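Memo to structure team: turn this sequence into structure tokens by end of day. - J.P.
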Amino acid sequence: MKEGGLTLTKWASNSQAARREHSKMFGEFDEMSITKVLGLSWKTTGDYFHFVTLLSSEIGHCSKRILLSIIARLFDPLGLLTPFSITLKVLFQETWRRGFDWDDVLPNEFQVQMKAWIEGLDYVRDWKILRCISPVAWDGGSQKELIVFADASEKAYGCCVYLRTTVNGQVALSWIKSNAAKWKQFVQNRVLEIQELTSPERWHFCPGKENPADLLTRGNKCS
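Reply from structure team:
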């Protein structure tokens, strides 16, 4: 790009190798920097999203117009804050049901709920949501599945989706959770790769009685 006269600026990467190369050419990379990606705050060194909120708990007398403006300030295209933000949206629904005008001062019960919600933003500032589902070099284990949970009420509906991978073997689990240098070369190389790509604390054993795949290895009666 540089040879074509297109100098690359304002870029960011979660790759340590890319940041090191940047430091060689342009000076030290700001490890504390926060990058905006499609409106989301992205910490490149930790490779996680987090939320920056600028609301004050001292909002004075709140109206339906102010309530809507507070909801609009939470830019959350991935729905990561939905369990928290849905509270205000349901409250906004209630202002319509009761027929409040845009600039009517809302009753005290609304003011109390809004103040409690805004105070909860202090906890949101500490949230760190990992951006990466899995490392590029990881094949995802022997089995991959999407687990979807959905629910609905008269006021809202939603779903959450998890990507789950499973492998079987308590022996393999003990390899992963120990020092790879203890094992023979064949096992050692694979354990080292797993430990580099994932945290050993994230691996767990599922007992045979609770493992539905266990039936496939032992057989069972149709009844």
